[in-house]
Design a protein that fits this description.
156 residues; alpha+beta; 9 strands
Length: 156
C-alpha cells in the first residue's frame, strides 16, 4: 500500500509544481484617441508596446518587481467626457482586502482614477504573455481538481 501511494504521489507532486516565469504585457496610454496603436481594435504587432518581463511597483516598497497580472483599463472621464485606454501591468501587494488590489477583481462601473471619476472597466489577466490584448480562460484549476480526484481514487 505504501509503495503504491508513493508511486502516485511523487509524479502528482511534480505535476502540481508550477514554474514562475515573468509575465509580458502590452504597455501604452491613449487619451481621446491620441495613441491609435493603443486603442481597440488592438493590433499586437505594433513594435515598442510589449514589455517582457513587465515590471510594476508594489505598495509600500521601492523599486520595480515582475508583474503578476496584465491590466486593461478603459473608460470615459465623468467631468470632461474624454476617453481613456491604458494597457499595463501590476502585481499583488499582499494586502488583505480585494478592494485595495486592482488585480484581484475585474469589474465595470465607476471608479476613481488620477483624482477623477471614470465610467468604464478594469480588466486583469495572467494566463499568458500579452493577454491584455484579448480575453482568454485557462483550465488550470480544472486540471488540479482532476489530478486530485485521480490521486484520491488510487488511495483506496
Amino acid at each position: 500500500m505504501y509503495g503504491r501511494c508513493l508511486l502516485v504521489s511523487v509524479p502528482l507532486t511534480f505535476l502540481l509544481i508550477q514554474t514562475v516565469t515573468p509575465l509580458g504585457c502590452f504597455k501604452c496610454v491613449s487619451v481621446n484617441g491620441d495613441n491609435p496603436a493603443c486603442e481597440d481594435p488592438f493590433h499586437n504587432n505594433v513594435s515598442g508596446l510589449f514589455e517582457n518581463p513587465c515590471m510594476g511597483g508594489r505598495k509600500g516598497r521601492d523599486g520595480l518587481y515582475p508583474a503578476s497580472d496584465c491590466l486593461k483599463i478603459t473608460g470615459v472621464y465623468d467631468d470632461t467626457g474624454e476617453t481613456m485606454m491604458i494597457r499595463g501591468c501590476a502585481l499583488d501587494s499582499g494586502t488583505l482586502t480585494t478592494d485595495t488590489e486592482i488585480i484581484r477583481m475585474s469589474h465595470c462601473g465607476y471608479f476613481y482614477f488620477d483624482q477623477r471619476y471614470v465610467r468604464g472597466c478594469v480588466q486583469n489577466c495572467n494566463e499568458m504573455d500579452g493577454c491584455n490584448s484579448a480575453s482568454t480562460i485557462t483550465p488550470s484549476i480544472v486540471h488540479s481538481i482532476a489530478i486530485s480526484m485521480i490521486y484520491l481514487t488510487n488511495l483506496r
